[in-house]
UniProtKB/TrEMBL annotation, chain A:
Bilayer-crossing regions: 20-41, 379-401, 435-458, 538-557, 569-590, 610-632
Assigned GO CC terms: GPI-anchor transamidase complex
Keyword set, alphabetical order: Membrane, Transmembrane, Transmembrane helix
Gene3D superfamilies attached to this UniProt entry: Zn peptidases
Protein name: Glycosyl phosphatidyl inositol protein transamidase complex subunit
Positions in coiled-coil regions: none
Biological processes, Gene Ontology terms: attachment of GPI anchor to protein
Automatic annotation (TrEMBL), chain B:
Keywords: Membrane, Transmembrane, Transmembrane helix
Classification of source organism: Eukaryota, Fungi, Fungi incertae sedis, Mucoromycota, Mortierellomycotina
Protein name per Swiss-Prot or TrEMBL: Gpi transamidase component gpi16
Keyword Transmembrane helix: yes
BP term (GO), one: attachment of GPI anchor to protein
Listed Pfam families: Gpi16
GO cellular component, one term: GPI-anchor transamidase complex
Keyword flag Phosphoprotein: no
Transmembrane segments: 522-544
Gene source species: Entomortierella chlamydospora
InterPro entries given in the database record: PIG-T
Length: 635, 565
């Protein structure tokens, strides 16, 4: 205290500047380490809490279940009906199912839709039916949906049979306060999307997409359950899928309700996604298990493509999850039939029916490391923020390097030498190269995005070809940028040499502007920090993935006087560029590159996922700029 | 009805003040209420003190399924509570009277009618015309120069509460208005336990002035009480059979001795192709009547309870062959209307109203929609679509438009349209709005549920006796009662060309406005309280405590220190 207070303000600044220059790079690496350790600690049992039902109105499993053995028989009968119908073409199939719904006494209808993407054209017919709750005002509704094709690519026979049976069961009672809408959607996800768009009055009738207006409606949808029970057999366990488009998550109470019911009134083994874990004594305390589960969740969330049709509801502020019947005949566990599942789904609907308000109590931001283990946003946000701040620190230290620190300008004051800080930097910064590189790379990124998403109608046009073209566009940017910058620095050098000769009095050699790469790297790091932190609030998993991938290359890489090192760095950066990642992903899942690319394109065009625009328009430009950066001259 | 439901409708009519002379009659003022007889005094006093000329109050729970059930017999079917009244505006105290009326009725029927305040009360310009005597008068006005309506200026007030639940507490005061209570007559069937286990339930009180003879020399005030319930008999076991005692868990043992008529009318199912699918027992003594003709033919069985009952509880049952009908004439209502919100999110939204005209001729109709002030309508976004195609010239459909701009926290937006519905068409109106960010105290309990927005009302003229289950208007029952046939003429809401005006009620809707996190204020309160407590405590301590430097020499006691202070 005493020492500091006696130092002048300028001296303090000098000390701070020195500290920044000397310690900040090291500090930022320490922060990266802290953030990594923290991230890895998230699945640990001492970090995650046990879930609890936060919304008191839900009262999961407290209502008596009406689903009885007769209904089970009815469900089995419907199963045969559905398997018979399923073989029909789309339109006849939907009509036949509509007839089944109207036989129960539900008001039902069908909806045609067409969707043209840049690669293909999809058309189909949805069937939907509404159970009008007796004596209710019909302002609120719940949705039970099932796609015709399950995520296992089998026919979703059991789920559709279940919808029909539940329609029958609900019709018997007079205790519902909300309508129940049954939706059987055609196609992959576009069917349900077409239905949801039309339900919210957003139906279009254009060349690209056309959705038929709905003829039967109900009130505002409060929550939805998507059923995915493939085939006609029994199941070993029930998997919960909950990640939506762009990593949006449903209210945690949805999962809590199901898990509570599955432990009480309808005992069923519940798991996250379709991963079964062999039973062990202390399985909840097993760190590796939790880590695995959390990584699965983060993988699905980062991809931004929903893991089931439930993901489409979230955009409309409808909380939804998918229940998926996991069928592993060789798995040593009890198997559950439609009777048990029917009771579970009915009880869940009854629970949601109890809601007085829209689900708002529990968490919307969470990481799950088990069905009953969650990590809340307060615990998982710090590591990614620390990661973002480490980028900023690195950028700041580089920024400082490009100014004329150390500013040991001395003045004589009362016979003492005192350091004086100037209120400005005498060393000018040259923004021409970094600004042009960043600007051009963003233009290239946008161009590649447009290239990928536009259909030109050339013969033999495939997404893969377009990707190659856009990679070409992007990589074309690198050599001119690098060579122009090199030539420019040569010119500057020679000019400086000349000026030195003519004006020998000025010896401020260190006042020449800092090398171009320093400023460029500063910009890259600052932008990376911006992206990682902003994204962490929108899609945490994607932010973490991007942060982890780019943190070392962007922070550590710098131009080297050995061109081999620069070359290796450039290659490493190319490996983490979108085409590189795509290839890596395709190799990892041993799939064709064009398949993976199609999946990404479909995510954007059908579901409106931001992964492709994000990669092309934000991630790729920075990557390009980084490649240019490592190839720039050292001084 | 076609889906196996049984529709039951109770109607009780009480008259007061017969033998009034026309020239003496100047609205329901003092001389009318001198002698009550069977007319409930509680209603009479309300009418008298608030200068009410016509009163219509309906409590409804559930939605009337127009597509499945046709039109209801009861004139109102909007979910929740609907109250409208014509008030005498002699002393220009309509607003005060309306307020008094809502508050008093609120007490009388144990309902939250007092919430019908200025922010939701409206004055429709074209819908909800008066149904009583004055219609007759205005008909006379065309010939007679002296206009009674000028003599007594009247004002209409209309309000509805879409989210009001209806239950036993409302039924009990309603039953109390009946002369025989629920002790005798058909009213003895009114058991709340069964009535409220139905798919649709509606009860109403209508008061209107009527004429007792053709020339309208004798006038009286008519009180009509109705209860409408739709039972789902097929719910339990899929059987469409029903018995009177099964429906109501009670039987009728005697007719109300005070009633002049006490009839029970059964609309027989309109089967096609297979004539004898069902059996009604016992058959009425007079046999089965047929009303209407052609496609609109409707068979009815009338039981005069005064004659039928003889000590034994009256048993009535209808049994189907194989407990389900093979084929029944389908119901296809000529007009249906639906309304829904479009868009998502809490910032803006849209409203869509669809009106279907399945008839073969163009029809005039009136659409009335009331929207609460917190939805800011943009009238320039008002669009009309006919059969899915946007209409360029809106005048083709919208003949007249009355729009009342909403005023924040004081009155709702009203959109009233006089329409011309082309034959066999679907008209869709869309309009978009912004959602207001309310003050946090303005949110109701369970704020995240959202706000209920009441129904829109479409008034369409329908030819009399369209053979549906029924259609609105209070006079429908008179077609069964030949002795009253003369009174039907020129009465009620009908036009001269024998058309009844039917009101179609659309769905009520739920709108979710931007809702603050209500746990936040409490967090803030606790936090600020803690901070203030700490701050106040330490500041108080600093200011009030006297710091005294204690000299090391003077090792005094505390008592002495106090003295120095």
């Amino acid at each position: 205290m005493g020492l500091l207070s006696r130092l002048s303000k300028a001296q303090k600044r000098v000390i701070f500047g020195r500290f920044v220059l000397n310690w900040m790079p090291a500090l930022s690496y320490v922060m990266v380490a802290v953030s990594f350790v923290w991230l890895l600690a998230l699945p640990h049992q001492s970090y995650s809490k046990t879930t609890y039902v936060s919304e008191n109105a839900l009262l999961p499993g407290s209502a008596n279940v009406q689903f009885n053995w007769d209904d089970n028989l009815a469900a089995e009968a419907y199963r045969d009906v559905v398997s018979k119908i399923a073989a029909l073409p789309s339109f006849e199939r939907a009509e036949a199912l509509q007839l089944e719904f109207s036989k129960i006494g539900l008001r039902s209808a069908t909806q045609n839709y067409t969707l043209n993407t840049s690669t293909d054209s999809r058309r189909g017919v949805n069937t939907y039916a509404v159970f009008y709750a007796p004596r209710s005002d019909g302002t609120e509704a719940l949705v039970l949906s099932a796609p015709w094709t399950s995520r296992t690519l089998d026919t979703n026979t059991n789920a559709i049979a279940m919808l029909l049976t539940l329609g029958k069961v609900f019709k018997r009672g007079s205790h519902f306060s909300k309508d129940v809408i049954f939706v059987v959607s055609d196609g992959d996800a576009e069917g349900l999307q077409a239905w949801l768009r039309a339900y919210h009055g957003n139906e279009e009738n254009t060349e690209r997409r056309s959705e038929e207006t709905l003829h039967v409606r109900s009130g505002a949808i409060q929550a939805a359950l998507n059923l995915d029970f493939p085939g006609t057999g029994d199941y070993n366990a029930l998997g919960v899928f909950f990640e939506g488009v762009n990593g949006q998550l449903p209210n945690l109470d949805m999962i809590n309700t199901i898990s509570q019911i599955s432990e009480g009134i309808a005992p069923v083994e519940l798991t996250l996604h379709d991963e079964l874990v062999p039973y062990t004594e202390n399985m909840t305390k097993n760190y590796i298990n939790s880590l695995k589960k959390m990584l699965y969740m983060m993988k699905y969330q980062a991809a931004g493509t929903p893991t089931g049709n439930h993901g489409l509801y979230l955009k409309y502020k409808i909380d939804a999850i998918t229940l998926h019947g996991i069928d592993r005949p060789d798995w040593p566990s009890q198997r559950y039939n439609l009777f048990r599942l029917g009771a579970l789904v009915e009880s869940a609907v009854r629970s949601l029916n109890n809601l007085l308000e829209h689900l708002h109590q529990s968490f919307f931001f969470y990481l799950l490391s088990g069905v009953k283990k969650y990590t809340s946003i307060g615990l998982y946000m710090p590591p990614v923020i620390i990661l973002g701040v480490s980028f900023i620190f690195q950028a700041l230290s580089l920024w400082g390097l490009s100014s004329d620190l150390p500013l040991e300008l001395e003045a004589i004051d009362e016979g003492r030498k005192v350091a004086v800080a100037l209120p400005y930097s005498r060393r000018s910064r040259n923004y021409k190269v970094p600004a042009t590189v960043i600007g051009m790379s963003f233009v290239a990124g946008w161009a590649s995005f447009l290239l990928l998403t536009t259909g030109f109608g050339f013969p033999g046009e495939t997404p893969l070809l377009k990707l190659v073209a856009s990679t070409g566009v992007c990589s074309m940017l690198i050599p001119p940028a690098v060579y122009t910058a090199r030539i420019r620095s040569q010119i500057l050098k020679s000019r400086k040499g000349k000026s030195k000769k003519t004006d020998s009095s000025s010896n401020e050699t260190d006042l020449t502007p800092a090398a171009d790469w320093i400023l460029l790297k500063t910009f890259i790091l600052a932008l990376s920090a911006l992206i990682v932190t902003t994204l962490s609030a929108l899609n945490f998993s994607l932010a973490v993935t991007i942060g982890v991938v780019i943190v070392f290359p962007y922070m550590a890489f710098r131009p080297s006087s050995y061109s081999i090192i620069s070359g290796v760095q450039a290659l490493a950066l190319m490996a983490i560029s979108p085409p590189g990642l795509l290839t890596a992903g395709a190799w990892w899942y041993s799939k064709d590159i064009s398949l993976v690319l199609n999946w990404v394109l479909e995510g954007y065009e059908v579901l409106g996922s931001w992964l492709l625009p994000m990669l092309c328009c934000i991630y790729w430009p920075l990557n390009l700029a980084a490649i240019v950066m490592v190839l720039l001259p050292v001084s | 009805m076609n889906d196996g439901s049984v529709y039951s409708h109770f109607q009780f009519t009480t008259h007061i003040g017969a033998m009034m002379d026309e020239d003496k009659f100047d609205g329901p003022t003092s001389n009318l209420f001198t002698h009550y007889n069977l007319f409930p005094r509680s209603i009479g006093q309300i009418l008298h003190s608030f200068e009410v000329e016509e009163l219509h109050l309906t409590f409804t729970q559930g939605r009337w399924q127009y597509d499945d059930w046709g039109y209801p017999l009861a004139p109102s079917a909007g979910t929740g509570v609907e109250l409208w009244a014509w008030l005498n505006d002699d002393k220009q105290q309509t607003n005060a009277n309306w307020k008094g009326l809502t508050n008093t009725l609120s007490g009388l029927f144990c309902a939250s009618l007092n919430f019908i305040d200025d922010t939701i009360s409206i004055e429709p310009k074209m819908s909800f015309r008066n149904e009583g005597l004055y219609n007759v008068h205005s008909a006379y006005d065309a010939t007679n120069a002296n206009s009674t309506s000028e003599k007594t200026p009247r004002k209409l007030r209309y309000g509805s509460l879409p989210h009001e639940n209806v239950c036993t507490e409302n039924l009990t005061p309603w039953i109390k208005l009946l002369p025989c209570k629920s002790k005798a007559g058909i009213a003895s069937l009114l058991k709340s336990h069964k009535l409220f286990d139905s798919r649709f339930y509606s009860m109403a009180v209508h008061v209107r002035p009527v004429c007792e003879d053709e020339l309208c020399r004798i006038k009286s005030l008519e009180l009509i009480q109705t209860i409408t319930a739709v039972f789902d008999v097929a719910r339990r076991d899929g059987s469409y059979d029903w018995t009177l005692s099964g429906l109501f868990q009670r039987g009728i043992t005697q007719a109300c001795p005070l009633a002049s008529t006490s009839d029970l009318i059964v609309h027989l199912p309109q089967t096609i192709e297979h004539p004898n699918q069902y059996e009604l027992s016992p058959l009425p003594a007079q046999g089965v009547h047929t009303i209407g003709s052609g496609d609109d033919k409707q068979e009815i069985a009338v039981y005069d309870l005064k004659k039928v009952l003889g000590g034994e509880p009256f048993q009535l049952s209808l049994r189907w062959e194989n407990s389900r009908p093979k084929s029944v004439r389908s119901i296809s209502p000529g007009f249906t209307a639906h309304r829904y919100f479009t868009g998502f999110g809490q910032e803006r939204g849209g409203l869509a109203i669809e009106i279907y005209n399945n008839n073969l001729e163009d029809t005039e109709a009136i659409l009335l929609d009331t929207l609460p002030w917190y939805l800011k309508l943009f009238l320039h976004t008002f669009n009309v679509e006919v059969n899915g195609k946007p209409l360029e010239n809106q005048k083709d459909i919208v003949k007249k438009m009355f729009y009342q701009q909403a005023v924040d926290r004081s009155r709702p937006a009203v959109l009233e349209l006089a329409l011309n519905l082309p034959a066999q068409s679907k008209i869709k109106f869309t309009v978009s709005f912004d959602k207001v960010f309310l003050k946090y105290t303005e949110h109701p309990p369970d704020a995240n549920r959202g706000f209920d927005v009441g129904y829109a009302v479409v008034t369409v003229p329908l030819p009399r006796q369209q053979g549906q289950i029924g259609y609105g208007g209070l006079d429908h029952l008179r077609i069964y009662q030949e002795r009253d046939a003369s009174l039907v003429q020129g009465h009620g809401d009908g036009d001269a060309d024998g058309k009844d005006k039917v009101r179609l009620y659309t769905e009520t809707l739920l709108v979710s406005l931007p809702t603050p996190d209500f746990s936040m204020p409490y967090n803030v309160i606790t936090l600020t309280c803690t901070v203030i407590a700490l701050f106040f405590g330490s500041m108080f301590n600093l200011m009030m405590r006297n710091f005294v430097v204690e000299e090391p020499k003077k090792t005094t006691t505390t008592g002495k220190k106090k003295k120095t202070e």
